[in-house]
Structures are given as C-alpha cells and as structure tokens.
Amino acid sequence: MEQKNMYYDLGISEKVYQFGEEIVRNLQERFQEIDKISEYNQLKVLKAMQDNRVAEAHFAATTGYGYNDMGRETLERIYADCFHTEAALVRPQITCGTHALAVALSANLRPGDELLSPVGKPYDTLEEVIGIRDSIGSLKEYGITYAQVDLLEDGAFDYEGIKRAVNERTKLVTIQRSKGYQTRPTLSVERIGELIAFIKSIKPDVICMVDNCYGEFVETKEPSDVGADMIVGSLIKNPGGGLAPIGGYICGTKRCVEQCAYRLSAPGLGQEVGANLGILPAFYQGFFLAPTVVAGALKGAIFAANVYEKLGFSVVPNATESRHDIIQAVTFGTPEGVIEFCKGIQAAAPVDSYVTPEPWDMPGYDAPVIMAAGAFVQGSSIELSADGPIKPPYAVYFQGGLTWYHAKLGILMSLQKLVEAGIVTL
Ligand SMILES: *Cc1c(COP(=O)(O)O)cnc(C)c1O
C-alpha cells in the first residue's frame, strides 16, 4: 500500500498531504543539522552513563526512607556529569517543572532577599510561586521581594535597566530560556551566557538560575556550560525522553543543590532520603532516549513553522531561524483558530484520539486554556501536545512528538481541521 493512502486513511486529504510533502522536501538540510546535534548529545549521555558504570543493580526499587539508594545516586551523578555541574537532584518526588522551580527558589532565598528576572515576565505558574499574583505559600508571603526587567522592544537585554535593578538584596536571578506562553524569542545558550557574565560582573556572588524547561538537548551546550549556578526542568518534558512518568531535576553547584535537597525533604535529611519506588528504569532509559526524542520534536516544530508561515500566519520562531527550545508558537488571531488546531493535534494522537479538547480554567493560569494531548503520560509535553490560553493574541503553542512521523501527522491533521472549518484555504 502506498504511504499516502495511509495518510488518507487517517483523515488527511490529498491537498493537505501534498502541501505538507512539498514543505518537507525543502527541509532536508535543516533536518540533517538537527540529527548532528542529536548525535553529539547521544554520545554525551552515553559517556556519562559509562563513566558512572551503570549496571542492572541501579534499576532496583527502594522503599521507605530510601537510604543508600545506589540507583538514585548514580542517576544524579549522570545528570551532573552530562550537564557539567557539581551536583544534581533528580527525583520522582519533584512533581513537575513548577515544583522543581519552586524548590530551587525557596531553597536558595531567605526573607529579605530579592529575586530578579532580567528577561521579563516568567512562566504563568511561577507568578503564583513568586507572588506576582497573590497565592498561598508564595515567596512574597515569606518576605522575599521580586523585581523584573523586561526585554527591550527588539528582544535585546536591557543592560542599563538590569544594572539599575541589581541591588544589595538581589540574591538570585532567574532566567527563563524558553518563551513559554509569550511570543518573545527563546534565548540561545550563548545569549544566556552573555547575560550571566554581565550580571556576575555587577554582582559576582548572585545565584544565576535558568529555567531550562523545553531547552534540554536542543543545542550541544546547556546553560550550565556558560555559567548558570542552577538549571531546572521537568522530566515530563525533554530529559525524560517520554518515558519518565513524573519528576523534575535541579543541576548545579554543590551548595545550591544541597539547599534544594534540604528544602525538598526536610532540614537534617536532605539528599539522603527519597525512595525510588521502582521508577528508575524509566528515568535512565528516558534520559538515554532524550536526544533522539528531542530531535523528532524539533523537526515537528520546524515543519509546523514552515506550514503556517507559508499560509500567512505569524509564527515564532519563524520558518528559517535557529532553534533553542522545542516550542512553536502560531498566532491565529481568533479563538476558533486555536481550537481547531488543537482538535487536529488531538485527533492525531495514539491515545484519546476520539475525544474533543475544550478550553477550561486550569489551576495556575489566569485565562481558560485549551490543551490537546493524547499522551501515554498525563500532561506530558514532550509527547505531541498543543495548548493555548484563550486570550489575545490567540496564539497556540505546539510542542513535542516522541517521533518525527507522529509530529508530522499531528501538524497535517491540524491543517486538515483548519481547512474543514473554513479558516484556511489551500
Ligand atoms: C512547562 C514549564 C514550566 C512549568 O512546568 P510544569 O511541569 O508544567 O509545572 C516552567 N517554565 C517553563 C518555561 C515551562 O515551559
């Protein structure tokens, strides 16, 4: 049976299929670049695993307090070695990215300290962690203040503004690598390095933390290679490789990670406790697969950018620019555009393909959000997923895809839905 007939069987029309094929033909060179980065990162992970003498014994379950958990300790060494940091905390007890970031912040800040974001507003869920929006248990409730310097109109760092904002109380600087729910550009590792160097030249002892969500393995370097004291992320995004069913990580200096461990468990306990409950094989194998999975997701994002830019929609990043995270934003300008796009992503999923996504009021967000995800792991956004807050400019954020072929089908299906709804004409 011809390949295109499989697409027709899945609900893709001849016109949509041909439109997609034409675009894929022109992306071969970019795909090769992605494969090269992926190859490098695969070797980086392998080297860290071999250096740490990974063995079957490391996959064993521990229970209770989880003292002397060899598997957990070795996995944390692997993360630290791979990301070139002194220490790492990689735990199923860290429930998600927001939790990892909340731990990293609250562990390293004390009453009277100030937190600074020199790259504009942080990710929505962090607004409540910080207390930008009042919330129970926020840093603000503990007397930790927050300052923010926005990026300049053209996306550049406001160096003057940052210089003015750094003061004697500035203890920690948070830098979000990915654009999150914004249409600003994602920061490259190189730019993050420049920003950190500038901040340290003003105040050498300030802690520079990078929210690394969605950025891992997109480049051959990570922010920890360019001066970050801590990098933080979620295991149901890039580094879990689609296999980790929960978890988060914090990699960084021994001092910072130690503070995090005491905050995560309890003063006096720290990194020594935290049973793995048998989850480690998925963490190890997911990390091993992550470079390849990230490459598939990146190809999907670039395909989407090229499809929707050609159709006249505003896309960030655009069709040709370099990539620093796996997120693709497409601005439709109407709620219907966002909703039809998400319906297509859902309809292409291996799980729950028959359900229709609807906007809902999610905890941590200030507008209804529509989410499409037919994922093996609930809410996993390294799996093919799309979400968008139902508010202007009505942009959808698309990410993931455990394989390029699935990401491709998802984008074709999104286009199919837009065509069927009369929003797009081919
Ligand atoms: C996803 C994300 C978070 C929060 O992670 P959750 O796992 O959803 O809690 C924080 N920052 C950025 C940039 C993210 O992409």
Question: Would you mind describing this structure in some detail?
Answer:
- A hairpin with a 5-residue loop joins strand 11 (385-389) and strand 12 (395-399).
- The chain has helices at 3-9, 14-25, 28-51, 70-82, 97-108, 124-130, 159-165, 189-202, 254-264, 280-310, 335-347, 404-420, and strands at 87-91, 114-117, 145-148, 170-176, 207-211, 230-234, 248-252, 314-316, 328-331, 369-373, 385-389, 395-399.
- The strands form two sheets. The protein has a seven-stranded mixed β-sheet, with helices on both faces. It has a five-stranded antiparallel β-sheet with strand order 8-9-12-11-10, covered by helices on one side.
- Helix 10 (280-310) crosses helix 12 and helix 11 (335-347) crosses helix 12.
- The longest helix is centred in the C-terminal third of the chain and has 31 residues, at 280-310.
- The model has no long low-confidence stretch (mean pLDDT 96).
- Helix content is 39%, strand content 13%.
- It is α/β, with parallel strands linked by helices.
- The structure holds pyridoxal-5'-phosphate (PLP).
- The site of pyridoxal-5'-phosphate (PLP) has 13 residues, from helix 5.
- Pyridoxal-5'-phosphate binds at residues 96-98, 101, 123, 125, 176, 178, 180, 211, 213-214, 234.
